[in-house]
C-alpha cells in the first residue's frame, strides 16, 4: 500500500473524500441522519486503525484493505442512490434503505473483529444503537408525514 491517504475508491476519489461525502449525504437526509453518522463513525474508526497500522510499519492484508474500499464504495453508492430520490420516494423506500445500511454495518463489524477493535466505543452495541436510531427515525418520519 503506497499510503492510506492515497487509498482510492474507484470512481469516488480518496477514502478521506468518501468519508466526508458520507457525512454530507447523511446530513442532507434528516430521516436517516443518525444512522449515517454512526456508520461514518464506525468506518472512520476502521480507517484510523488502518492508518495506525501503517504508521507502525505493519501492513494490513491487502484483502482487508480491498474489502474496506469495497465497503466505502458500497456505503457511498447506497447513500447517493437514496439521496438522489425525492423525499417522498425515500420515505417509501425507507425500509429497503435501512436494510442496506444494516448490511453495510454488518460488513463493518467484520473489520472490528479482524482488527480486534471490539472494545472501541463505536462498535459497542451497534445493533442496539441501530434499533434505537430506527425507532427515533420512524418517529421523525411520522411527524414529517403529520405536518
Please describe what this structure looks like:
The relative contact order is 0.16. This protein has 147 residues and is an all-alpha fold. The protein is elongated, with a radius of gyration of 16 Å. It is built from six helices and two strands. The model has no long low-confidence stretch (mean pLDDT 88). Residues 21-120 form the Mixed lineage kinase domain. InterPro entries: Adaptor_Cbl_N_dom_sf (IPR036537), MLKL-like_MCAfunc (IPR059179), MLKL_N (IPR054000). It comes from Phytophthora sojae (strain P6497) (Soybean stem and root rot agent). One of its GO terms (biological process) is cell surface receptor signaling pathway.
Unreliably modeled segments:
none
Count of distinct strands: 2
- Amino-to-carboxy terminus distance: 51 Å
Query: Kindly state the mean pLDDT as a whole number?
Result: 88
β-sheet strand percentage: under 5%
* Broad structural category: mainly alpha
Instruction: Please report the number of helical segments.
Output: 6
Protein name: Mixed lineage kinase domain-containing protein
Organism: Phytophthora sojae (strain P6497) (Soybean stem and root rot agent)
Domain Mixed lineage kinase: 21-120
Pfam families: MLKL_N
Keywords, separated by commas or semicolons:
two-stranded antiparallel sheet, Mixed lineage kinase domain-containing protein, 73% helix, mainly alpha, MLKL_N, elongated, Adaptor_Cbl_N_dom_sf, 147 residues
Chain-wise SSE layout:
Layout: E1 8-9, E2 13-14, H1 15-28, H2 33-55, H3 62-83, H4 87-92, H5 94-114, H6 126-146
Antiparallel strand pairs: 1-2
Protein name: Mixed lineage kinase domain-containing protein
Domain Mixed lineage kinase: 21-120
Organism: Phytophthora sojae (strain P6497) (Soybean stem and root rot agent)
Amino acid at each position: 500500500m503506497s499510503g492510506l491517504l492515497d487509498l482510492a475508491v474507484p470512481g469516488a476519489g480518496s477514502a478521506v473524500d468518501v468519508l466526508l461525502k458520507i457525512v454530507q449525504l447523511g446530513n442532507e437526509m434528516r430521516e436517516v441522519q443518525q444512522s449515517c453518522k454512526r456508520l461514518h463513525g464506525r468506518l472512520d474508526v476502521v480507517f484510523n486503525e488502518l492508518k495506525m497500522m501503517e504508521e507502525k510499519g505493519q501492513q494490513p492484508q491487502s484483502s482487508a484493505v480491498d474489502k474496506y474500499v469495497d465497503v466505502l464504495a458500497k456505503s457511498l453508492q447506497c447513500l447517493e442512490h437514496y439521496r438522489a430520490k425525492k423525499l417522498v420516494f425515500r420515505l417509501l423506500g425507507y425500509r429497503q434503505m435501512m436494510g442496506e445500511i444494516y448490511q453495510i454495518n454488518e460488513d463493518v463489524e467484520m473489520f472490528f473483529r479482524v482488527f480486534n477493535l471490539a472494545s472501541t466505543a463505536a462498535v459497542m452495541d451497534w445493533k442496539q444503537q441501530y434499533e434505537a436510531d430506527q425507532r427515533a427515525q420512524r418517529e421523525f418520519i411520522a411527524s414529517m408525514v403529520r405536518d
